[in-house]
Amino acid sequence: MELLKNKIIEEGLVLSDQVLKVDSFLNHQVDPRLMREIGRTFASLFSESGITKIVTIESSGIAPAVMTGLDLDVPVIFARKRKSLTLQDDLYTEKVYSFTKKEESEVSVSRKLLSQGDRVLLIDDFLANGEAALAMARIVEQAGATVAGIGIVIEKAFQNGSGKLREHGYRVESLARIASLESGSVVFAD
Amino acid sequence: MELLKNKIIEEGLVLSDQVLKVDSFLNHQVDPRLMREIGRTFASLFSESGITKIVTIESSGIAPAVMTGLDLDVPVIFARKRKSLTLQDDLYTEKVYSFTKKEESEVSVSRKLLSQGDRVLLIDDFLANGEAALAMARIVEQAGATVAGIGIVIEKAFQNGSGKLREHGYRVESLARIASLESGSVVFAD
């Protein structure tokens, strides 16, 4: 997706060989027009997949997921990272390790929001080691629903996430694939 | 906003005199079409306010805020509730007490995202005691920017939030105002 790649080149900050900071348009400040285009692109890629629901993880996945849901006309669930007082029982819960934050957290989805017949599109802002996407997929499968596809905004293709996801048989579509962040510069994979 | 009020009546769960659970369309699962209408309504209410930026707090504020940003064509910042490895320095930080979670947390916004000339629209999913909105307002004012308005999806009008915000001189627009949750039923204020 050229618009996204240009934005990464213009505004992305390479903090290390592993970390790309895109706080100005995705992870802290959001560019709503770019999110709209991202949503349209995911909706087009998965238009034939019979999607009935989208699942993402708070917080950075929400904007692209909601825009995709708008175009596919399906509800969007954001998995919660912590339990709150009004979200306590009847949850599907999975552990997810964040390499960025160097900590394990739990993500959970209310059982009543997923059904056996659902065909679920998983959306996330970043794909690195695939931990977050695999946790979402396990939640969907706990519910007896089907992972019908995985849409990633930015994939760090030099890590092994997409390989792991494809080993599970999932279709993965990434809008920008980064081959390397070495020497402080972004090299795309294609 | 009639569409929102109908959704609250149909799908809202009154958990106590104080707590309304709207997990099926706002706080855990999101209805993208409803969010689009909410965004259009806020954009229309504040179309003459010269808004240059929207600020919300992760996570439930993001969907309505991004839809509003789409229509006003301005960037949307979501204040982060915790510091992460890629979000560590040069932050405006304020404390906010959550009566739902019964705990104090910190919200922060990167200094580089707010400028003196900014006219900021604050968006949040719920207004109860006004703690979250006041924390966002203090962050905006730390940056020397102006709070040009506050847009609330659901106001618990039986609590004192909007009064506190108006005492500070802020214009507050709530799309649904709840007068009471007593006896397990929702009574709107207007």
TrEMBL record, chains A, B:
Reactions that this protein is recorded to catalyse: XMP + diphosphate = xanthine + 5-phospho-alpha-D-ribose 1-diphosphate
CDD domains listed in its UniProt record: PRTases_typeI (cd06223)
Record pathway: Purine metabolism; XMP biosynthesis via salvage pathway; XMP from xanthine: step 1/1
Subcellular location: Cytoplasm
Gene Ontology cellular component annotations, sorted alphabetically: cytoplasm
Binding site for xanthine: 20, 27, 156
Keyword set, alphabetical order: Cytoplasm, Glycosyltransferase, Purine salvage, Transferase
GO biological process: purine ribonucleoside salvage; xanthine metabolic process; XMP salvage
Family: Belongs to the purine/pyrimidine phosphoribosyltransferase family. Xpt subfamily.
Subunit description: Homodimer.
Protein name per Swiss-Prot or TrEMBL: Xanthine phosphoribosyltransferase
